[in-house]
Amino acid sequence: GGDTRFMAMLVGVLLLGCSLVHAAALMGRAIVPQRVPVGASMKLADDGILGVGVIGAGRIGLVHLEALSSCDNAKAVIISNPTVSKAEAAAEKYKLPSFSGDAMDVINHPDVEAVWICSPSSFHADQIKACAAAGKHIFCEKPIATDLPETIEAINACEQAGVKLMTALQRRFDPNFQRVKQAIVKGEVGDVVTLKLCSRDPAPPPFEYVKGGGGIFKDMAVHDLDMARYLMGSEPIEILALGSCQIDEEIKVLPGPEAYDTANILMKFANGKCATIDVCRQAPYGYDQRAEVLGKEAMIMTDNTYPNTARIFSSTFTGNADMPYDFFMSRYKEAYVQETLAFVEALVNDEPSPCTGIDGLIALVMAIAAGKSAEEGRWVKMSELAPDLCTLEVAITGPLSPEECEAKVVGSDGTLDFGAVSSFFKRITTRV
Fold it and tell me: What is the pTM of this model?
């Protein structure tokens, strides 16, 4: 029906538009990382081991190196970072043969078949396109890009090059959320009535991180927006969001959603169900990640996870002896491993990416719609993003007026009309 056309349009964007290695070292001999160029390429071994290069030796890059170290059929062979000493330290810790200060050394390394992009968000789109041009598969931390045109262009580059792209939305691979999804799919809760998600950080990030970071919806709530869609198994059609500054007065001077540290979101889906989300940059009791799904037959929910199960019972307190896991790196440690294993298996067995570029694109569209709703104080339909998508037409015929855009892509019921938009996007994305 018309309510699902937005998803179909986004899938159309991608579908219509966009050596095995092993690091040979003698048994017992320590690997000494070398700065690229290293001269002769590493000798390839026909043992089913995937050669991986990592861009970015910051916090998340090290998380992914740790996850890769748990994978039997993949091996990181090189890492890059602008501060080359960080790349060198990471290479030494995880026994990588090579390191560099230049991301292109990773992308062009002869023994790299897949690249893990863990750089700052502003570099993602260009690095994805460079990987695609080099014929390398891509695992990219969210977001693919911070705006729609760049996101579509990057997805399209991968499709045209025939390489796989995975958007790293790690919560999909968390055992707790996986069990909730399983209960829905298997019918353990019956027909879903509603779901709600809670995401609260232990402390607000620094001002410089928030400034230019895209705001609370793109930077933080995007995970919850994606999880709501993933659990619901239906496409969002309308969003209402409220944003406010309750914690950090300093960020009030920033524009748009960057000035929010607290937000509440209500979403309507094509299947007629609703979801609610609350996010906050600070919870005094620690990192808070919960989900609850109410069905006609039962309810399933997740609670916060703790480093241990010890509980204290006294006359003044009863509860967990310690705080929940302190932040996402420890809370989602297993999820990072599982998403790594899932993508490596997809590459080794030539299967579809378990979390596609389109999934990342839809999450971005949802975050943009939420920001628009919070700024304008009203419900925002997904189809209202059509004018933003229509700006790509400039690559062919020049700018479109709102009326021209509506005539091209919006149906009479206000939803995006895939029948009208498919050829439109095919022309645009193949020529951007």
Answer: 0.81
